[in-house]
Amino acid sequence: MVPRMPALIAGCIFATSLMTAPVAVAQTSIGPETRLPLPRYVSLKTDRVNMREGPSTDHGTRWVYQRAGLPVEIIAEFDNWRRIRDPEGEDGWVWHSLLSGRRTAIVAPWDREVERTIDLLDQPEPAGRVLARVQPGVVAGVSRCSGDWCRLAIASGPRQEIIGYLRQEELWGVYPDETLD
């Protein structure tokens, strides 16, 4: 019997990257509109989201995102507008209803220029069986995190996904030591 090789899951969300590894961020304030912690991670709800220079449609569009599920970080609130920071470090304003509380993460976006893969494991431990080899830049759904490991769902084809574990330090979209249930 020939052992089955883990799948290679590839993805790219940006043309260039100036990303650095995640750093610990203390949640130091509460949003004046939502009363939720700032900063906090969310994701884009639709395949077309305009990031504006300021909190109104009178302000120019800085970026147009075309990837539902892309994680972003809310860093400020004003009325129905949320100031977000994307994985590249760009920030601007987005209308609140274009954001979702669904948690997602990007696998090691700071390493997208490096030829490497990260093993998606069947258990949250280094000795786990490799389910897939994931390239930096892949977006995954996050279902829970322990502070060290996150359980992810990664699309592997139309209506198919692989569920496994990655170290939290390999993800942008969850804070170091953050726990999610």
Can you describe what's shown?
There is one protein chain. With 181 residues, the protein is an all-beta fold. 0% of the residues lie in helices and 44% in strands. The strands form 5 sheets. The chain has a 5-stranded antiparallel sheet with strand order 9-8-7-4-10, with no helix packed on it. A 5-stranded antiparallel sheet has the order 16-15-14-11-17, with no helix packed on it. It is globular, with a radius of gyration of 17 Å.
List strands and helices in order, with pairings.
Layout: E1 7-9, E2 29-30, E3 37-38, E4 40-44, E5 49-52, E6 61-65, E7 71-78, E8 81-85, E9 91-95, E10 99-100, E11 104-107, E12 118-121, E13 130-134, E14 139-145, E15 149-157, E16 160-167, E17 171-172
Parallel strand pairs: 1-13
Antiparallel strand pairs: 2-3, 4-7, 4-10, 5-6, 7-8, 8-9, 11-14, 11-17, 12-13, 14-15, 15-16
Search tags:
single chain; 181 residues; mainly beta; SH3 type barrels; 2 domains; 5-stranded antiparallel sheet; 17 strands; globular; disordered N terminus
Percent of residues in beta strands: 35-45%
Structural class: mainly beta
Quaternary organisation = single chain
- Supply the CATH class of the largest domain: Mainly Beta
- Low-pLDDT segments, ≥5 res: 1-5, 12-24
The name of the CATH superfamily of the largest domain reads SH3 Domains
Physical arrangement of strands within the biggest beta sheet: 9-8-7-4-10
Principal-axes geometry comes out as: globular
Spatial separation of the terminal alpha carbons: 39 Å
Examine the secondary-structure arrangement and name the CATH architecture of the largest domain: Roll
Please give the largest β-sheet: 5 strands, antiparallel
Radius of gyration: 17 Å
- According to CATH, the fold-level topology of the largest domain is SH3 type barrels
Helix percentage: under 10%
Number of helices: 0
SSE arrangement, N to C: EEEEEEEEEEEEEEEEE
Instruction: Tell me the domain tally.
Output: 2
Name the average pLDDT.
Answer: 88
